[in-house]
């Protein structure tokens, strides 16, 4: 089975089924990672280097066995043809991303900020309880742009590079970063390996995603925002994606936010144009068009190879 065909089937499965409602493999993996964490995380007064070593060990124990099993069973051509699109389907979540953002867009259209804040809290780690309309819009668009890279295009990239095992390894590593990548007293050292691995695995996909956003929107503004704003961002990958995406959409993003009770000053991204509710749908359209672009380019690449 070609990569393009596997991707097409995975996208069709996602469009028809969405994310599994019960017993998603990533939920099961999260429980397994939590089990490993409780047995390897050390008291906070222990040496930082031992915390990092145990965090690396936890990363290896949680990701490599599963990745190895997928690599072995997909060596068989028949199993590979059957499992490849299913595994990729489980590693991407375009329909879920659109559903979550529409769950914010719809109450915003009705002026129901309470419901919009609650829906937003399902997809962001920042505090949403006191957000005004503009903050909700901006956070929704930022999350759409960033999750497009993390939850759709990076898994596809690693599927192209390393097959089902590559997509699985990326998705598991990204999940661990979401669990352990916090810069707080519990995870700062224990989650160091997971956070750095996620940065490495996302470096190329993030830039390819940003390039796609640039090509499918306002190219001049996207390029300007990328050059001027991405170096100011804390994340080496999210900043690239969100600054370019904000410029592509010609919209103002970024700014102060509250995380775990602490205010955080984030750089201003994009242009001076104030976001509207319709820009949430435009961000979704950008994700959809980028998905089609990647499918077309992968198909073309396989045809020419």
Automatic annotation (TrEMBL):
Keywords associated with the record: Cell membrane, Cobalamin biosynthesis, Membrane, Transmembrane, Transmembrane helix
Gene Ontology CC terms: plasma membrane
Segments forming a coiled coil: none
Main subcellular localisation: membrane
InterPro entries hit by this protein: Cobalamin_biosynth_CobD/CbiB (IPR004485)
Transmembrane spans: 53-74, 152-170, 283-301
Matching Pfam families: CobD_Cbib
Membrane topology summary: Multi-pass membrane protein
Subcellular location: Cell membrane
Single Gene Ontology MF annotation: ABC-type vitamin B12 transporter activity
Any one biological process term the GO annotation gives: cobalamin biosynthetic process
Biological pathway: Cofactor biosynthesis; adenosylcobalamin biosynthesis
NCBIfam families attached to this UniProt entry: cobal_cbiB
Protein family: Belongs to the CobD/CbiB family.
Function noted in UniProt: Converts cobyric acid to cobinamide by the addition of aminopropanol on the F carboxylic group.
Designated name of the protein: Cobalamin biosynthesis protein CobD
């Amino acid at each position: 089975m070609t990569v393009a065909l596997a991707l097409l089937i995975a996208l069709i499965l996602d469009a028809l089924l969405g994310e599994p409602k019960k017993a998603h493999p990533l939920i099961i993996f999260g429980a397994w990672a939590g089990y490993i964490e409780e047995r390897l995380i050390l008291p906070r007064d222990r040496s930082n280097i031992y915390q990092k070593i145990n965090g690396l060990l936890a990363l290896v124990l949680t990701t490599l066995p599963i990745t190895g099993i997928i690599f072995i069973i997909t060596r068989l051509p028949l199993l590979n043809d059957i499992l490849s699109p299913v595994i990729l389907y489980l590693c991407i979540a375009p329909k879920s991303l659109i559903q979550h953002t529409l769950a914010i867009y719809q109450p915003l259209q009705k002026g129901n900020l309470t419901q919009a804040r609650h829906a937003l809290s399902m997809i962001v780690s920042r505090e949403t309880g006191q957000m005004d309309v503009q903050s909700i819009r901006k956070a929704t668009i930022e999350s759409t742009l960033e999750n497009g890279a993390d939850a759709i295009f990076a898994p596809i990239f690693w599927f192209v590079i390393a097959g089902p095992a590559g997509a699985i390894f990326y998705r598991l590593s990204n999940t661990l970063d979401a669990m352990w990548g916090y810069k707080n007293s519990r995870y700062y050292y224990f989650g160091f390996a997971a956070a750095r691995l996620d940065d490495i695995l996302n470096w190329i996909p993030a830039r390819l995603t940003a390039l796609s956003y640039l090509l499918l929107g306002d190219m001049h503004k996207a390029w300007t925002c990328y050059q001027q704003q991405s170096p100011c961002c804390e994340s080496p990958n999210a900043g690239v994606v969100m600054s370019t995406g904000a410029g592509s959409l010609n919209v103002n993003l970024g700014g102060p936010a509250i995380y775990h009770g602490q205010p955080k000053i984030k750089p201003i991204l994009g242009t001076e144009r104030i976001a509207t509710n319709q820009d949430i749908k435009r961000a979704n359209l950008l994700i959809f068009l980028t998905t089609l672009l990647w499918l077309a380019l992968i198909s073309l690449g396989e045809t020419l190879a």
